[in-house]
Amino acid sequence: MDGLLVDSEPLWFVVEREVMARLGGQWGEADQQALIGGSLERTVSWLLAKATRPVTASRADVARWLVDGMARLVAERGLAAREVLLPAARLVGGGAGGKGELATAGGRDPSRLADALALAAAEARRRLEGPGGSSSAAAAPRSTEPAGGSGGGAPEPG
Prior knowledge:
2 domains, 49% helix, 6 helices, two-stranded antiparallel sheet, 158 residues, mainly alpha
């Protein structure tokens, strides 16, 4: 089972703005809206197309800047994946393992899965948003699917 637990778009917006600044361009709401739910590959293409400085970075460099930026923001907010999943895993009679931003969980009681997912989502939101934070819960996270995947059909910036 896979699904959206937390709206990560506010974090993506911060990181995309940082990366665009490295590339010498401006990043705004219209750019973010065009990429919601899209692939990492598509986001890299969009950023490179908007760059105003001569680009010496590779596509892999730009992708790494994005992923590293997201990892940094998640770590700054104290989101340890195992800590988020453990209460939910216990709810279904199981456990969780992992460290940092990557963990897995499981249990023996699938009848409580919906409650467990809701518990994990609430804990992740609490940790990501921090004091006074907010999240719009409607947007999907960036996918690592190829650009032809679920990224939609918005054109590249011109």
